[in-house]
Amino acid sequence: MFSKACEYALKIMIYLFSVQSEGNLAGLKEVAKAIDSPEAFTAKILQVLVRAGLLQSLRGPSGGFRVVDRPITMLEVVIAIDGDRIVKNCVLGLEECSSSHPCPAHDKFMAIRDHLKGVLTTTQLKELKSGLIAGNRFLKL
């Protein structure tokens, strides 16, 4: 559904929320290991999340990454990494697709797209950390 980078970004954010709830920051190596992602790829994703204003990067021996102090939805992360195409673009890839100029699949997928946007908009990543902390939810095999 999402790009690999977006999947990793969502995992990164959930992981950092869980670490941060214990008052800690996490460095690149720790984050990459926690979500089972290559370090170089993780570093690029972290940079994008920092530029998007979703994470802060703190330098130094006790530095690392932390989530900014505000609620963050899944949609914000998806848009930061993949853009808004999943909730806006035509399922058939047409440049112009609307209620007044619909593609053949428009009506079928409009409801799905609207529901997905609603779920992504109302799901705050902070909510998803509790299962990780409790040990009954996982970010890797």
- CATH class equals Mainly Alpha
Classification by helices and strands: mainly alpha
What share of residues are in beta strands? 5-15%
Looking at CATH, which topology would you report? Answer: Arc Repressor Mutant, subunit A
Biggest sheet features: 2 strands, antiparallel
GO molecular function: DNA-binding transcription factor activity
InterPro entries: Tscrpt_reg_Rrf2, WH-like_DNA-bd_sf, WH_DNA-bd_sf
Protein name: Transcriptional regulator, BadM/Rrf2 family
Pfam families: Rrf2
Description:
- By secondary structure, the chain is mainly alpha-helical.
- The protein has a single domain (4-134), classed as Winged helix-like DNA-binding domain superfamily/Winged helix DNA-binding domain (Arc Repressor Mutant, subunit A).
- It is 52% helix and 6% strand.
- The protein is built from seven helices and two strands; from the N terminus they run H-H-H-E-E-H-H-H-H.
- The chain has helices spanning 4-20, 28-35, 39-51, 74-82, 85-88, 106-122, 129-134, and strands at 55-58, 64-67.
- It has a two-stranded antiparallel sheet.
- A hairpin with a 5-residue loop joins strand 1 (55-58) and strand 2.
- Helix 1 (4-20) packs across helix 2, helix 1 crosses helix 4 and helix 4 packs across helix 6.
- The radius of gyration is 17 Å and the shape is elongated.
- It starts with a helix and ends in a 7-residue tail after the last helix.
- The relative contact order is 0.17.
- The mean pLDDT is 93.
SSE map:
Blueprint: H1 4-20, H2 28-35, H3 39-51, E1 55-58, E2 64-67, H4 74-82, H5 85-88, H6 106-122, H7 129-134
Helix pairs in contact: 1-2, 1-3, 1-4, 2-3, 4-6
